Here is the input.
Amino acid sequence: MMKDTKVRWIQDLRRFIPLKSQFVLSGNTKDLQLIKNDFNGFGWHRLENAIDIELKSLGYAEVVYYNPLDGFDIPFFTGSPQEKKELFHRLNIPASSKATFNNLEIFNSVLHTIVNFKEKPIALIVDFASQLLMNPESLVKAEHDTFSLANVLSQTTDTRPYGTPPTPFYNSVIWIVDKEGDLPDWMIVNNPKIRHIPIGKPDHIVRKLLVETLIQGFGNQHKDVDKVVTDFVNETEGLLLLDLVAIIELARSESIPIAQIADAVRRYKVGVTEDPWLTIDRTKIVNGEAFIKERVKGQDHSVQHIMDIVKRAITGVGSSKRNSRPRGVVFLAGPTGVGKTELAKTLTSLLFGDENAYIRFDMSEFSAEHSDQRLLGAPPGYIGYDVGGELTNAVREKPFSVVLFDEIEKAHPRILDKFLQILDDGVLTSGRGDKVYFSETLIIFTSNLGIYKETAPGQRVAHTSIDEPFEIIQEKIKQEIENYFKFDLNRPELLNRIGDNIIVFDYIRHNVGELIFDMMLHNHLKAIQKQLNITLDIAETVKVTLKELALKDLSNGGRGIRNKIEYHFITPISRSLFSLNPSKDDALKATDIVVDLKGTSITLEKQ
Here is the structure.
């Protein structure tokens, strides 16, 4: 039970009703509100109803309600229709509601009459007040007249005594807006007679009170009701009470047991009927390490670490109930061309059966200060607002995905702040105000941090070497990553969110380079034979020469090996195939290779 039965915004309203003539309510104004009833329980009401209940309890006789669509009404009037009609006449409210539809002249007349009404204390609630004007910074004359009147009335009106014993009352005006800035600043800012009251999202106490009521409709489906309530409350951190009602309705319509309410929450957030992580073929995961090692050579420790993270994501072990954090977060660091991006691709292929199913962002393209708008979408009023953000659109379309952020250190620090939101809460708000959940994603960052180091004069020098043992390389790179986030960016909290999931890749050493060479050459031979419908073999001497050329310089890792193979094998073999013009089912063999100043040439012979 709540220690204080009044939520904060209601406490604030009651405290300042005798002191302020007008109020601006903003924030969570479209949600249900918690109000204590006469039976020592709690009821759930729309905001205008909650305000009416509070004002009536304070002694207000009537509460007039206005919105731009329906005009004026007194929805909770207790008198007869004739009495209501007479009151409307005294307040200058037209008999036909159509006459008041978004008519500011009529609105001004009623506003002035209500504020100066002397018979009894009344209040005016102006709902959807944000829609009364097109642009609060550039008002048309009619809008300016309305809010000039409201401003003058707010500061010139006085309280009048009413009741026994006499109590001072303003005829209060309450504006309900989306955000405080929706009304003109010159009316709100530094106005001693106007009070802004933000309405926050429901905390866990309020959510629990509603949940205890909602799950009664499920009957005794679960023996440990208290645990079900606690889990439901924890799973819905940050959601509105209306969201909770919708989740219960979703669970009921899709026959989800109350004990599995977390599944209903997930479906409501990301729109996925089944939990894809639970439908992954376990046999694929059991054989996952072997599958990845077929393509990622020489990084066995990295493969094992990332597979542990995948297994944790599937089982859900260690996941927090209070947020929607990603299923896993991995930071891949190390030299260029050692398999960081290849690991991400292969992991995606393992999970989805398609290596191109991952969402990739080259963070070197997001180095400008305002490039976060590309990821999240431009805010209202800016070009591209209606398009949305590249990241938010992609995750909304594919909530179950691997999201790869390549070369994260090249992104602008402002963007890194957005990653804090993803790693902490698992949710981003797009420029259009839509929430995008990352709870079903696996986030992978890659980086070359620590490979080079900047000296005091600003010179970029090698910080690690292939001649060093991997343990030394790993220690150096992790230390540089830590220094970068703590001192260069001054964002140690981002490093803390990644935790121990920094995986350092080793250099491609000669023995691993041979494996990579054999794999790449084999794949190229298969592709040529399939494309041309021929049989192609390579003499051992040619293969040895190619391997020596490809492994001569391993500073660029596997990418460098690929480049050498393309230059010394693909290009000359293509030239020879074009000249020879083989027929279907021909058997060819590369018998000789020559490397000179003109380049590389390969001799092909029919067998």
About this structure: The mean pLDDT is 88. The chain has 23 helices and 22 strands. The radius of gyration is 34 Å. The first helix runs from residue 8 to 16.
